[in-house]
C-alpha cells in the first residue's frame, strides 16, 4: 500500500512538473513575442526620433543661410529698385521738359506762319521752320530718352519679379520650418505625458509646472519674518494668494525696454503689488513671483493655468529634445535588460 501511495504521489509530482514546464515554455514564448514587439517599437521610435532630429538639425543649419541670402538679395534688389526709380523719374522729367520746349517752338512757328505774307521776316522764319522740320534734334532726344525709360522700366519689372520669387521661396521655407517646429513641439508634449509618471525627485530630468510659484522662497521669507510664530500657515496663504495673482489675466506687471537694440518684455519693478511684496517680504519672495510671471507669460500668455515642461534640474533650464530622447532610450534599454534577466531566472 505504501509503495502504491508513493507511486501515485510521484505521478502527481510528475504531472505537476510537466504542467509547470509547459507553463514556463508558454511564458517564455509570450516574453519572446513581447520582446520582439518591444524591439520593433523601440526601433521604430528610434528611427522616427532620429529622422525628426536630423530634419530639424538640417533645417536649423539651412535656415540661417537662407535668411542671410534672402536679406542680402533683398537689400541689393531694393537698392537697385531705388536707383532705377530715380533714373526713371529723371528721364520722365527730361521728357516732359523737352516736350514742353518743343510745344513752345511749334506754337511760335505756327504764329509766324499766320502772319502777313508781306512780312519781311516771313521768309526767314519759314526757312528756320524748314530747318527745324528737317533736323528736329529735340524730337530725336525725346525718342532716345523714351527708349531709355522703357528699358529701365523693363529692368525694374524683371527685378521686381525676381524679388517676388525670392520672397515666395523664403516664405515657403519659413512655413516648412514652422511645421517642423510644430511637429517637434507636439512630440515634446507627448513626451511630457509619457514621462510624467516616470520622472521623480531623484532623476536629472523632471516635470516643472511653468508659472508655479516656488514655495521654498516664501518659506524662507516667512521664516525670517515670523521666527517665533507658526509661519507655515501664513506661508501657505501667501503662496495661494500670489499664485492667484500670477494666474490673473487682468494683472499685467510688465514693461517693454530696449536692450542692445532689441525690445524685450521685463518685470515692472514699479508695479504697486510687487513693490508692496518686496517691501514686506524681501527680494526672495519678489524674485519668486517675478520668475513665475515671466514663465507664465512665455508658456501661457492668457495666464489661467501653469504649463508642464521637462526641466533639467541640474542646470536649472528647460531640457533639450536630445536630452529627452536620450533619457527615453536609456529607460528602454534598462527595461529590456530587466526582461532578459527575468527570463534567465525562469
UniProtKB/TrEMBL annotation:
<dbReference type="InterPro" id="IPR045177">
    <property type="entry name" value="FDM1-5/IDN2"/>
</dbReference>
<keyword id="KW-0175">Coiled coil</keyword>
<feature type="domain" description="Factor of DNA methylation 1-5/IDN2">
    <location>
        <begin position="208"/>
        <end position="338"/>
    </location>
</feature>
<dbReference type="Pfam" id="PF03469">
    <property type="entry name" value="XH"/>
</dbReference>
<feature type="coiled-coil region">
    <location>
        <begin position="142"/>
        <end position="169"/>
    </location>
</feature>
<protein>
    <recommendedName>
        <fullName>Factor of DNA methylation 1-5/IDN2 domain-containing protein</fullName>
    </recommendedName>
</protein>
<dbReference type="InterPro" id="IPR005379">
    <property type="entry name" value="FDM1-5/IDN2_XH"/>
</dbReference>
Amino acid at each position: 500500500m505504501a509503495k502504491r501511495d508513493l507511486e501515485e504521489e510521484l505521478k502527481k509530482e510528475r504531472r505537476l512538473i510537466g504542467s509547470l514546464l509547459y507553463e514556463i515554455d508558454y511564458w517564455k514564448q509570450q516574453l519572446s513575442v513581447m520582446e520582439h514587439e518591444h524591439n520593433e517599437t523601440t526601433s521604430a521610435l528610434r528611427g522616427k526620433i532620429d529622422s525628426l532630429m536630423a530634419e530639424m538639425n538640417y533645417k536649423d543649419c539651412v535656415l540661417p543661410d537662407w535668411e542671410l541670402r534672402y536679406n542680402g538679395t533683398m537689400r541689393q534688389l531694393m537698392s537697385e529698385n531705388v536707383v532705377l526709380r530715380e533714373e526713371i523719374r529723371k528721364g520722365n522729367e527730361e521728357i516732359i521738359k523737352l516736350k514742353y520746349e518743343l510745344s513752345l517752338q511749334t506754337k511760335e512757328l505756327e504764329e509766324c506762319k499766320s502772319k502777313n505774307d508781306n512780312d519781311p521776316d516771313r521768309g526767314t522764319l519759314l526757312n528756320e521752320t524748314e530747318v527745324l522740320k528737317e533736323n528736329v534734334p529735340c524730337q530725336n532726344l525725346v525718342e532716345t530718352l523714351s527708349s531709355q525709360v522703357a528699358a529701365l522700366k523693363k529692368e525694374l519689372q524683371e527685378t521686381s519679379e525676381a524679388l517676388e520669387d525670392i520672397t515666395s521661396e523664403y516664405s515657403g521655407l519659413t512655413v516648412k520650418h514652422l511645421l517642423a517646429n510644430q511637429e517637434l513641439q507636439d512630440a515634446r508634449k507627448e513626451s511630457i505625458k509619457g514621462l510624467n509618471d516616470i520622472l521623480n525627485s531623484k532623476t536629472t530630468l523632471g516635470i516643472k509646472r511653468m508659472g508655479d510659484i516656488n514655495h521654498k522662497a516664501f518659506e524662507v521669507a516667512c521664516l525670517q519674518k515670523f521666527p517665533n510664530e507658526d509661519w507655515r500657515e501664513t506661508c501657505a496663504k501667501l503662496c495661494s494668494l500670489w499664485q492667484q495673482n500670477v494666474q490673473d489675466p487682468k494683472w499685467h506687471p510688465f514693461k517693454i525696454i530696449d536692450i542692445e537694440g532689441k525690445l524685450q518684455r521685463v518685470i515692472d519693478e514699479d508695479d504697486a503689488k510687487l513693490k508692496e511684496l518686496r517691501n514686506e517680504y524681501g527680494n526672495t519672495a519678489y524674485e519668486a513671483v517675478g520668475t513665475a510671471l515671466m514663465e507664465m507669460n512665455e508658456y501661457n500668455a492668457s495666464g489661467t493655468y501653469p504649463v508642464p515642461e521637462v526641466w533639467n534640474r541640474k542646470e536649472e533650464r528647460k531640457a533639450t529634445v536630445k536630452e529627452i530622447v536620450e533619457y527615453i532610450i536609456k529607460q528602454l534599454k534598462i527595461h529590456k535588460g530587466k526582461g532578459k534577466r527575468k527570463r534567465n531566472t525562469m
